[in-house]
Design goal:
alpha/beta; single chain; 5 strands; 185 residues
């Protein structure tokens, strides 16, 4: 995509990926422009989400998301009991463009989404967004004992290439814990 093409997706939304037997719901901060352009969560070519899922054994085959996820890819994820949504729904070039209020409102909507779909486990990818959205400034990564909406809750690292201190290896380890709790691996 050209820069102009990507910028045309500012403010767009991306449908949630959710099936009737969602056991593990991954939650991003918000859609990036590449995600909005391809209608595929975590789609930016430098994002390490799908490589980490594959390495952890959460998915069983490579997903080439940069051109847009295929229907077969979506069926694979849903069939594995995996869902994907976001805290905030508005696409931006960077998550830092979201307002505090958007994150807070998104947190309220996420709780309702979790209560409606009842995944076994929710894994929110991004501690800073979590702290803002849920007014928990001292929240730490890992499992949270209070859960969310009847589901177990983990805060896991954001897979964005901008999160330079994480690698596919470290993300795979972090994502494997909630996946084991959900019975996916």
């Amino acid at each position: 995509f050209t820069r102009a093409e990507l910028e045309s997706f500012v403010g767009a939304t991306v449908d949630d990926l959710i099936g009737p037997d969602c056991r593990l719901l991954f939650v991003g901060i918000n859609p990036g422009l590449w995600t909005a352009a391809t209608m595929t969560h975590f789609a930016y070519p430098g994002n390490r989400f799908y490589p980490a899922l594959l390495q952890a054994g959460i998915i069983e085959r490579e997903i080439d998301r940069s051109a847009g996820m295929s229907d077969e890819d979506r069926r694979h994820l849903v069939g594995r009991g995996i869902g994907i949504t976001n805290v905030a729904q508005r696409a931006t070039a960077k998550a830092s463009e979201l307002t505090k209020q958007e994150l807070i409102d998104g947190g309220v909507q996420l709780r309702a989404f979790v209560e409606r779909h009842r995944p076994r486990v929710v894994a929110i990818a991004g501690i800073t967004a979590y702290r803002t959205a849920f007014a928990e400034p001292k929240a730490v990564a890992g499992e949270h004992p209070d859960g969310m909406g009847g589901s177990r809750l983990w805060i896991v690292p954001n897979p964005s290439g901008l999160n330079a201190h994480e690698t596919v290896d470290s993300l795979a380890v972090a994502y494997a814990a909630p996946a084991r709790a959900a019975g996916i691996i």
